Give the backbone structure.
Amino acid sequence: MLVNITSILKNKRTEILELWMKNQLSNPGLADDLISNQDLRSQSADFVNALVNNLNENNIDNPNSSDFDHVIEILGGISISRARQGFSPRETGFFILSLKESFLEILNQEISDVKDLFTQSLRLSRLMDNFTILTFETFIKGREEVIMRQTDEITDISTPVIKVWDGILALPIIGTLDSARTQVVMENLLQEIVITGSSIAILDISGVPTVDSLVAQHLLKAVSATRLMGAECIISGIRPEIAQTIVHLGIDLSQIITKATLASALQYAFKSLRLEVKRSATDNKLFNKTQY
Amino acid sequence: MDRIPILKMGPFLLVTIQIDLYDRLALDLEEDLVRMVEKTSAKGVLIDISAVTIVDSFMGRILGNIASMSRLLDAQTVVVGMQPAVAITLVELGLPLNGVSTALDVEKGMALLQSKMIFDEEEEQEEDDTAAN
Amino acid sequence: MTLPLTKDILVVSREQDVVLLRNRVKEHAVKIKMGLVNQTKLLTAASELVRNMLRYGNGGKAIIEVVSSGRINGIRLTFEDQGPGIADIDNAMTDGYSTGKSLGLGLPGTKRLVSEFNIKSKLGEGTTVTIIKWANG
């Protein structure tokens, strides 16, 4: 007859918690700047209680049992919040691994038979290892969410549509142009064309590091879509090295109007809207004031 | 049977498509328009699709056909008011409607047609002049 | 893993059904909060496929499903016909290929509009096209 391991754990839960706290606090890698001792203690107590309360002789060998739903929920919550707060994977992993240490230490104290001790330790280890894997999975998911949110933010920030003149929009593109980004750029641009009733849009690619055939295709799509709306699209900011790559790759951009600088694109736009920029006469009052 | 109304405005014809077209309706429109261009000797056709939420390849082809047929009858076609989502979808579909002129709204479309008419007249004028000499 | 949440079956036999199907798909797309551009792409793709089904397969069955994969939802559309089938699918999926009077950009163009595209066809038995558009693209 094996010893009843769950009743040992239930009876010893206070000792387990103390031991676990001691283990966690003794870890030199603990980010005590990120979490207070008090919070750590209440998190740990919640988890130990949930685990010990739901543990029985049947489910200890079955980590997928629905009895552990609550335990997994708490653990998931802890690792997600740690991922967001910027804990390292090691710190997060140590949380659950040090609990396993404490469990094994208690078993070591309580079970005298060596064979028994080995069997029970193994069972408990398996369960705890499973929780460890889960912790990492959730931790990574939490990190991924952070990355996804930042990606969205970057896409939003980096595509402003500027009204440079009545009827003329400019859109400076900074960074690599992939298909998801192109979609956002196009949507913003076309929406703004409708709102402002602009008939000319300037896409400035000075901030795009490289133009390969895929990027060129995206640019052509933006130009075609603008044309379908009834507006004209000019590409500006083509650096010499980009002109070289475009020609070497055999990309045909002859169907679109391209300009070297935003200034010359603007000049073209003025011309096609029959606008003129004139230098004012020298007897300008403002000019005189600054002179004398 | 439903028909899409065609309005005559001076030398131009104006069609406003208010509902999503099914095939028969679109084909009827194509036929009606070409007849009207011939009957009224219209110089331009304005098709306002600002209320249209879907243009698939069939509708795209109808628009292209109308433009080509009208050109044969000496009328320019301008499609106006395409929704951004429709424009993006058409481009992705690979249907940039190259033969069709476009404008942002009816007003700008009308201006575009007028400028094309003036351009045509000037050209004719020049041809007459050279012929006279 | 892709899990179906709701299912809606529509028999397509006349060209008026194209508009009916579009409206039905739109209802579902709005329900899962799909953005306007993605909605338009999905509806256009549906329009192309149902038209193909009418032209080459003499109509057939359209299934509209709301599906979920992890945290994102999407719309899955299945078009089944008992038409003549397609002899060379690879060829049909190439830009510029067409047996009918269309522009020959039907299938590859449609594929570009959706997130997932799957086609099965057997000569003499019919064609089944399945597409998925996720709410976020």
Summary: The interface with chain C takes residues 180, 183, 187 of chain A (CB under 8 Å). The beta strands of chain A are 162-165, 168-174, 200-207, 232-236, 257-258.
